[in-house]
Amino acid sequence: MFQRTPRRRVATLRTLLLAAFAGTWLQAQTPVVPMPAGTNVVLGRVIEVGTDAPVGGAIVTLTGHFDAAGKPAAPTLGVRATELPPVVNVMTTADGYFVFRNLPAGMFTAAIRALGYMNSDFPPTLIEIRDSQKPTEVQFRVWRFAAIGGRVVDEHGEPVAGILVSALRRVSTGGDVMLSRAGAGLALTDDRGEYRIAQLPPGDYTAGIFSTTTTLPESVAAALDPSVANRENYMATNRELRQSGFFRTWGCPTCISNSHEGHHVGGFVLQRPGVPLPPAPDGRPLGYANTFYPGTTRAADATTVSLGSGESRTDLDLVLRLTPTVTVSGMLTGPDGPMAHVMLTLAPPGTDRGDFETPGIASAVTDSRGAFAFLGIAPGDYTLSSSLALLANEVTGEGKPLWASQALTVGDTGVAGLTMTMQPGVRTSGRMEFRSASGAASRPTQRQVLTLQPVRAQFWRTLQAVVQPDGSFRTAGDPPGRYILNASSPAGWSWHTTTLAGKPVLDEMIELGAAEVSGLVFTFGQTTNRVSGRVSDSSGAPDADAAVIVFPADSSAWREGIFTSRRVRKVLATSAGSYDVATFAPGDYYVAAVGARQALTWQDPQFLDRLIAGATKVTLGAEDQKTVPLRTITLTGRER
Question: Which pTM was predicted?
Answer without folding.
Answer: 0.77
